[in-house]
Amino acid sequence: MNHRPILKNKVYLYLTEFFSGVSVMAVELGASRLLAPYFSSSQIVWTIIIGTIMIALALGNLWGGRTADKNPDTDRLYRRLLLAAVWIAAIPVLGKLHYPGHLRGSLVLTINTNFLIIAAFCACMVIFVFPCFLLGTVTPSLVKYTVDSLEDNGKTVGTLGACNTIGSILGTFLPTFVTIPAVGTAVTFLLFSGILLAIGLIYFLSSKVRWKTCLVSVVLFVLCAVFGHNGSFAFWEDDLTYEGESVYNYLQVRETEDRTILSTNVLFGVQSVRMKEEGLTGMYYDYALAAPVMAGLAEKEEGSLLVLGNGTGTFAHQCAAYFPGVQVEGWRSTTRSPTWPTNTSTCPRR
Prior knowledge:
Layout: H1 10-39, H2 43-70, H3 74-96, H4 99-107, H5 113-127, H6 129-136, H7 138-146, H8 153-183, H9 185-207, H10 211-228, E1 240-245, E2 250-255, E3 259-264, E4 272-275, H11 290-294, E5 303-308, H12 314-322, E6 326-331, E7 345-346
Parallel strand pairs: 5-6, 6-7
Antiparallel strand pairs: 1-2, 2-3, 3-4
Helix pairs in contact: 1-2, 1-6, 1-7, 1-8, 1-9, 2-5, 2-6, 2-7, 3-6, 3-9, 3-10, 4-5, 7-8, 8-9, 9-10
């Protein structure tokens, strides 16, 4: 085993365990957002993501433990961290722009669920399994390096496990509630890969070894940051009014001559349409207008209508246009509805 000076400080080893846990969950949460526009965010896709990553971690645990017993060299572990950091930084380029998009495009004509499941599974295996496999080697390797005697091995292993779990908790909440809404999925991958890169660089540079390895890692990371920082999923589109990410969804807004179109978590579908002038959308929203007619609101001079799950208000606007004597209230599930025309009113969520 290499007796690097930094290894005398166990806090550094615990930080290595902590940030490896953070990165695993950040990759998992980022994977769901990265795949959602191409394969949806259904339970099936989540099952594939979680399953493949758990397989990668299990294999990493096995291989890391055997490797640590055969050759307890800490340099090998931190080289793996550098490699994992560079791979995670490259995910926005390798995954978002090329592999899932082209694969989904080739399968969209088949309209076959099984093909899409296989495609999502292949995307996860190719893009996300390898870095998670490398991060899976961290825990058994650090156990080998941090346990000094059998008298306190339980305490040491427990502390490592706690660091990994607490890091995983942080890696679960930060991407969803902070980094993805603030800076997007691509930059989120870069942020957490940068932390792993820093952990590896500190190890080698503190001992003044592996200068070339560190330099190559930094250069590759910078290249990934330059080519992968763009938050655009629909990179082939040049006429989008808005493209971005919220806590809940990937969002895409497109304007045409007569309507505004909203898509969430998809690149090829439509979730809501708002007409710029009076008229039907020509989509399934129009069929909902039969409900007020069946309720007899068309014959009444006054009436009221409550829309639950108001979304962007397509149906509420249509009701206001075609039933002028009706007071319409629209409720969203999370935020207050936008203001409708003068013959309608809004009601905040209670």
